Every structure is written in structure tokens, then in C-alpha cells.
Amino acid sequence: MLFLTGWLTFVYFPFVHMVWGGGFLQQWGVKDFAGGIVVHNIAGMAALASVLYVGKRRVLDRGPHSIPLVALGTGLLWFGWYGFNAGSEMRVDSVTATAFLNTDVAASFAAVAWLMVAWLNEKKPKLLGLLTGAVAGLATVTPAAGYVSPTTAVIIGIVSGVVCYYAVEMKNKLHWDDALDVWGVHGVGGFLGIVMLGIFATKQFNPEGANGLLYGDPTFLLKQVTAGVFSSVWAFAFTYAMLRIIDGFTPVKVTEQSEEIGLDESQLGEHAYDQSPGEDLVHAGR
Description:
The chain has 286 residues and is an all-alpha fold. It has one domain (2-57, 64-253): Ammonium transporter AmtB like domains (Ammonium transporter fold, Orthogonal Bundle), CATH 1.10.3430.10. Helices cover 70% and strands 0% of the residues. The N and C termini lie far apart (41 Å).
């Protein structure tokens, strides 16, 4: 509760104002259709700060508990993202339709791009990669959804699938314990979307938008990159500082014993799942 209150107050709300509420980034001309900076980039950088401060889990992560549930969650996210992106237009018009279509196109191409890159590197096509790639595409197209063409959404999807895959691979090699790949998918994806918006934005699809680098305005790209870097540094620094301060009042990492017996048991006194019959037999044998 301390972290959520502090993070909303010192990170999220300030960027809502800066980008959408008449703040200096909006006045400067920075564009963010549905939250590439305001939602994904700052959340991803907060995740990175949290991962580095809290450190790795002592108990080895065995991977997803249930890939079918991951698939169900991804489907719900994908469906909700239509409202998230298209709804940011706050009315129904051609921009709403463009944002809706771009959301679907980017997610689809990102899912396939991630699957193909993972297949080449890991020698097997994995459903988890397809699902993660879709979320990467959704996060990356978010700032650009209502400002670019569907053709650009294809490019955004492919680039995000490839770049976010390698960001997650880098995270794995550095042994950062980011359980849901928030930095690699949302942080990198959000930043990438802001930059690609600076390149591909066009007023042909949204007169209230901007023209990017390829449409004659290199200064818009500079503004987008500067805003992305600024938001990344702000979110990381404030999150890391808050964790240090909170850790002085209450530990931000559970004890080794709590981790070993599981947080359901140590924090709540119950388990989310019954033991399987096989596990019961093993315990009975002991």
C-alpha cells in the first residue's frame, strides 16, 4: 500500500498531467495516444528498479504454472485493449476505427514475429512465446495506435516482436528475476512505440496528431525520444528511491522461510490449489 500510494503520487499522476493534462510535455508537442509513456514505459522501468533492488528469488522459478491460463489471460487482455486504445479517442470516428485496427494488426504480427524468432533460436515453436509476443505488440502500438496507418502497425508489430524478444533474452542472461517480463515487454515496448511514433506519425490518419520523421518533421522524433528517456529516468529513480525508503519501515522482501513455504501459506494461511493425488502419495510414502 505504501508503494502503490507513493508510486501513483510521484510517478503515474505527474506523467498523466505532463502528457495528457496540459503539462509541459503536451505543450511541447509530445504525443502518446493511449499510454506508451504514461502506462507502459514508466511501469516497465519501475519493474526494472524493483527487480534490481529486491533481487532474485531464493527458490528457483519453475516457469508458468498454467499455459492455458496464460492463453486465457492474453485473450482477455487483447480484447480489453480494443477499448484501451480505441476508447482513448473518447468518441467514435475514423481515428477510433484506425486505432482499433492498428491494435489488432500490431498484436497479430508481433505474436508471429516473436514465435518465429524464438523458433529459430530455441528450435521449437512455443505457445508462451506467441502469447508474450502479442502482448509486446499491444504495448508497443499503444502510443501510436491513433496516429499511424495500418501499414505502419504491421511494421510496429514485427519490430516489437523481435526487439522485445531479445530484450527478454538479455534479461535472462543477466539473471534479472522479472517474473512476468514487465521490463522487456512493457518497458522496452512502450519506449519503442514512442520512438516509432516519432518516425511514422502522419496527420493523414489523424489531423490532431503530428507528422513524424518520414513525413517531414525530424524535430517530432527528437521530442519523442527525449520524452521517452526523461520518463524512463524519472520512473526508475523515483521507484528505486521509494523502495529504499519503504524498506526502512517495513521489509520489501519476504524471509527465506516464507518464500520456501510459499506466500499463500506464510501471508494468508491457505493455498490456491489442492495438492495433486501424486503429491499426496509421495507425502504418504514419507
